[in-house]
From TrEMBL:
Keywords of the record: Disulfide bond, Mitochondrion
Keyword Coiled coil: no
Organism: Trichechus manatus latirostris
UniProt-annotated location(s): Mitochondrion
Primary localisation category: mitochondrion
Gene: CMC1
The protein, known as: COX assembly mitochondrial protein
Protein family membership: Belongs to the CMC family.
């Protein structure tokens, strides 16, 4: 059974696992300042990071949660996923391999 590349239907694993994974990756990129602040605080605080980095941790959580709860952001990530899936169904080549540079001939 060949799958239609343009099919927009999502399986449960796509809705519950794959799209949220894209959302996490993109949210971490967009909250990079808060990620850096929290990472720096943890490195500087050592074992006391639980106590000393509450402010940075809260800022990071707030930033990430704002993206996770944004329906427009979910739709953006869903469309990105559907575009990648459509391309895979057309070519049979996963996105990771497609994005790698092709070796140049000698």
């Amino acid at each position: 059974m060949a799958l239609d590349p343009a099919d927009q239907h999502l399986r449960h694993v796509e809705k519950d696992v794959l799209i949220p994974k894209i959302m996490r990756e993109k949210a971490r990129e967009r909250c990079s300042e808060q990620v850096q602040d929290f990472t720096r605080c943890c490195k500087d605080s050592g074992i006391l990071m639980v106590v000393k980095c509450r402010k940075e941790n809260s800022a990071l959580k707030d930033c990430l949660t704002a993206y996770y709860n944004d329906p427009a952001f979910y739709e953006e990530c869903k469309m990105e996923y559907l575009k990648e899936r459509e391309e895979f169904r057309k070519t049979g080549i996963p996105a990771k391999k497609r994005l790698q540079k092709l070796p140049t001939s000698i």
